[in-house]
Amino acid sequence: MEPLLAIVVGASYAAGLYMMLRRSLVKLVIGIILFSNAANLLFFTSAGLTRGAPPLVPEGMLGPEGAVADPLPQALVLTAIVIAFGVLAFAVVLIHRAYEVVKADDLDQMKDTDT
Amino acid sequence: MRPEVALPILIPLLAGSFSLVVWRSVVLQRWIAVLGTGALLYVSVWLLMTTHREGHVVMEMGNWPAPFGIVFVADLLGAIMVVLTGIMGFAVALYSLATTGKGHEKFGYFPLMHLLLAGVAGAFLTGDIFNMFVWFEVMLIASFALLILGGERAQMEGAIKYVTLNLISSMIFLTAIGLLYGLVGTLNMADIAYKLQEVEEPGLVTVIGMLFMISFGVKAGAFPLFFWLPASYHTPPVAVSALFAGLLTKVGVYALFRVFTLIFNQDVEFTHNILLWGAALTMLTGVLGAAAQFEFRRILSFHIISQIGYMIMGVALYTPLAIVGGVFYIMHHIIVKTNLFLVAGVAYRLLGSYELKDLGGLYRKRPFLGVLFLIPALSLAGLPPLSGFFAKFVIIRAGLEAEEWVVTGIALLVGLLTLYSMIKIWAEAFWKAVPEHNQNAHRLESQDTQLWLMYTPIIGLALCTLFIGLYGQPIYELAAASAEQLIDPSQYIEAVLGVQP
After folding, report:
1. Among A27, A78, B211, B367, which one has the highest count of C-beta atoms within 10 angstroms of its own C-beta?
2. What is chain A's pLDDT, residue by residue, as a tens digit (115 residues)?
3. Which architecture does CATH list for A1-49+70-109?
4. Bridge partners of B59?
5. How far apart are CA B122 and CA B22, in angstroms?
6. pTM to 2 decimal places
7. Distance in Å, alpha carbon of B157 to nearest chain A alpha carbon
8. How far is B428 from chain A (nearest CA, A)?
9. Nearest Cβ partner of B154 from A46, A76, A112?
10. How far is Cα B1 from Cα B419, in angstroms, rounded to an integer?
């Protein structure tokens, strides 16, 4: 499972970066989505995958038995997903507003504030 | 329970929520802004005094012992940064009473300001690397919203670059945290530092360190990752620019100080050397960019970058004296840079422009403002006896002791070029006559009562600069004590985990 996920993560990073390097605002946002999902998946994969072993404590015991999945990365990735989602909602509103003001989907039209 | 560690985060959060509750009443929001930031300043000084007395102050959230729960840790560096946050918050809150437009106040300027302060204070105080990511995001989302309040074209263009690059930096930060967690299986920074000593893969550790360096480098505005900064910092209202200029990039610098003294101190030859050359190029490109500009706030924005170089040089040299210099430089720089932006705001109020070619005659009509500009400007350039001289002196002396001749030479040259930029602003905005085409010249004569509200924080910050310059020994000793804690991470680890590494 890990090698497959590793490939998926790498491909998502590459695709996200590629999309961000295009000139379109919409593609920029899609690139950010891919990039943030790649980061989340990488976090999940690098923390180690354990299949079918939920970290549940049996009744009457103080800790789980045997090898169980680490619950921490799941909690962290959940937090990261929520944050990424919030930021993304902002980014979508921002590009909508920017499109209204600048009247172009082209990032090359947005160079007035540079230098 | 150590309430003083949590209060600098709780107070702005509470003040922000109360401001949201009284959404319809701008007057109440203004009162909450002044009271809330004043309370933040008060508790931050309390925190600094406690840390100065006891060393590290640790608070474990929910009483979970250290590696398992989230901890908030204040060492001297964190406490100093929080005090500066309090000073900046209070000054900018006062200033924005007079300058913020009605539209901004109605659409949540004050709640966002409190949220930003909470995020900054949280990032300074947390002892958990993932928690630091979360505070970074809190700070970023508040800054995004503050940046685009008003919705002008320039703001939109600046915001696209600012948002994109900061999001990429956050994602790289998350990636680095993920890899680090996979390597050591913990998120508590003290625990990471403790466990990394036993990890057998130095190559992988260095790679993760580089990822952190890139991520924080974007946030700090280090070479070659700074392009979002001059593209966006001059677009929002001046109070927002001042707050950003003082605090946001310094969060990145703080994170570099924290991570590259505590966690990644194995392969100093490699990582800190890259930091050192990055610092040199940051100084040089920042100051050259400033030399090419003719807009008040853009010059100042580029100077943020050049000054960041000095601070990173402090951590990059990684000698006790250099870290003292870095910490001292941060203290001096936050105050001075915010103050310069506030002066730019007064000039805009009087003459209706930030372009140097439209400004002029300020010294003839408002000599007091001229003095108030010269204090931070000459301090930024590093003229004695102002605070910048001592900050630069310590850094450059550390550079000479480390025998890094080229970098030290660049640091000296950049000081000279900074003086050039400041003299350019002085000559254009203050010294020459008011240009004929400026329609607002009559405003120089008028008696604007709100100006005094703008002057108050400027005078206060100028007094801080003078104090650091003329009575610098206690401040220097504070920086030295903080550097002593940073150079010896075992104190931090022991304070958090209770074990001797």
Report:
1. B211
2. 889 999 999 999 999 999 999 888 899 999 999 999 999 999 988 887 888 788 888 888 887 877 888 888 888 999 999 999 999 999 999 989 888 888 888 878 777 776 6
3. Orthogonal Bundle (1.10)
4. B72
5. 25
6. 0.93
7. 6
8. 20
9. A112
10. 48
Smallest Cα distance from A103 to chain B, Å? 10
B125 in Cβ contact with B74 (< 8 Å):
yes
The first and second tokens of residue B306, run together, are 């050049």
- The rounded distance, in Å, linking the Cα atoms of B353 and A53 is 65
CB contact under 8 A, A94 and B160: yes
**Which chain A residues are Cβ-neighbours of B205 within 8 angstroms?**
none
Query: What is the rounded distance in angstroms from the CA atom of residue B10 to the CA atom of residue B8?
Result: 6
Q: Following DSSP, what letter does each residue of B377-439 receive, concatenated?
A: HHHHHT-TTSHHHHHHHHHHHHHHHTT-HHHHHHHHHHHHHHHHHHHHHIIIIIISPPPTT-T
Query: Among B473, B421, B173, which residue's Cα sits nearest to residue B298?
Result: B421
Q: Name the burial class of residue B470, with classes exposed (0-12), middle (13-18) and buried (19+) by CB atoms within 10 angstroms of its CB.
A: exposed
The residues near A65 (Cβ < 8 Å, ≥ 6 apart) are A58
**What's the CA gap between B38 and B431, in Å, rounded?**
36
Structure tokens at B367: 């000599």
ipTM: 0.93
Q: Which structure tokens are listed for B471?
A: 């009575």
List chain A domain ranges: 1-49+70-109
Nearest in space to B94 (alpha carbons), one of B338, B303, B359: B338
Rounded Cα–Cα distance for residues B340 and B95 (Å): 13
Distances (CA, A) of B247 to B139, B252, B265, B338, B352: 10, 9, 26, 9, 26
**Euclidean distance between CA atoms B316 and B398, whole angstroms:** 11
Query: What's the rounded Cα separation, in Å, for the pair A31 and B403?
Result: 45
Which of chain B's residues have a Cβ under 8 Å away from the Cβ of A5?
none
Cα–Cα dist B74/B190, whole Å: 13
For B198-219, the pLDDT digits (tens) are: 887 888 889 999 999 999 999 9
